[in-house]
Amino acid sequence: MNKEDQTVHIKIDKNVQIHDTNVHVRDIAQVECGDKAMEAKVKSLRLDSVQVEKPGRYVCSVMGIFADIHRSFPEVAVENVGEDDFIITYEKPLQPPVWISYLKTAAVALIAFFGAAFAIMTFNNDVDIPKLFGQLYLQFTGRESDGFTILELTYSVGLGLGILIFFNHFAGKKLTKDPTPMEVEMRLYEDEVDTTLIEASRRKPDKEKRGGSK
C-alpha cells in the first residue's frame, strides 16, 4: 500500500445539520481515500472533539477532526479540502403535527398577502394611479375614463404576472431552475450568520473553544 492510498481527504461544509449527539465523521464530512477499507473506518469514527449536548449551533475546528483521526489512525495523512472552521447545527428529529405546519403556512400566506396588498395600494395612492390613467386615456382616446379601461385591466394583469415571474413560483412550482430572490436573500443571510458565529468563536479564549462553542 503506497503513501497516496493512506491519504484521507475530507470535505466539511460551513454549516452541517445533525440529529444525534453521537457524532461520527460521516455525519459531518465527505471522505475519500484510495484505501476503501481505511475510508470506511474513518467514516465510522466517533468524534470526541465534537461535544453536542442540546439543540443549538456549535462552532468547531477541522483541527479537532484531524486530532481525532490521528489518535485512532496515526499512520494516516489527512488533507482538508473544505472549511477550516464550521458550524454543527443539532436538531432533535421531532416532526411537529401536520396541522401546525398548515397553520404556520396559512399565517405566513395571509401576512404576505395583506402586506403586499397594502404596499401596492399605498404606492398607487402616492402616485395617484387613477388620475394618471385617466389623463393618459383622455390623451390617447379623447374620451373621459370611467375608472375601468384597458389601462387598469392591463396594469392589474401585468402586476400579477410580474410578481409571479419575479418570485419564480406558480402553484408551488418554479418557472425556471434559477433560485428565487427570496432564496438568494435567505442564503446570504444564513452565510452572514454562520460567518459571524465563526468569527465570534475565534475571539473566545482557547478553553472555551474545546469541544466546540455554542
From TrEMBL:
Domain Stage V sporulation protein AA: 6-92
A Pfam family hit: SporV_AA
InterPro entries, A to Z: SporV_AA, SporV_AA_N_sf
Superkingdom, natural source: Bacteria
Gene3D superfamilies for the chain: eubacterium ventriosum atcc domain
Bilayer-crossing regions: 102-123, 147-167
Membrane is among the record's keywords: yes
Name of this protein: Stage V sporulation protein AA
Species of origin: Candidatus Limivivens merdigallinarum
Phylogenetic classification of the source organism: Bacteria, Bacillati, Bacillota, Clostridia, Lachnospirales
